[in-house]
Design brief:
Alpha-Beta Plaits, alpha+beta
Length: 94
């Protein structure tokens, strides 16, 4: 009996970044638009793709995005008219 070993190459992803917005109250329409883009896997003109958006009623928002670099993440926010403070590159532990 022949045994074949198949080695799967790890998928290559763009770097991921997390940013935080202290007091960003998003209207439901904006949340719906972001959610739709996330489901479609759409990337903007800066090559940035929203992976997840976490928010609470106090206006605290965390964005998990994929993009080529921190500058692209900042340009993404600027184009949306959203102030962008700290941006951190993150890697999954799992």
């Amino acid at each position: 009996m022949d045994r074949h070993v198949i080695r799967l190459q790890p998928e290559r992803h763009m770097p991921r970044f997390m940013d935080f917005h202290e007091d960003l109250k998003l209207p439901q329409e904006a949340i719906d638009q972001i959610a739709q883009g996330t489901r479609e896997g759409a990337a903007d003109e800066f090559g940035v793709r929203q992976i997840e958006l976490y928010h609470n009623a106090d206006g605290k928002v965390y964005c998990l995005l994929e993009g080529p670099d921190e500058d692209a993440i900042r340009q993404h926010h600027e184009a949306l008219g959203v102030p962008c403070g700290d941006v951190h590159r993150v890697d999954s532990l799992l």
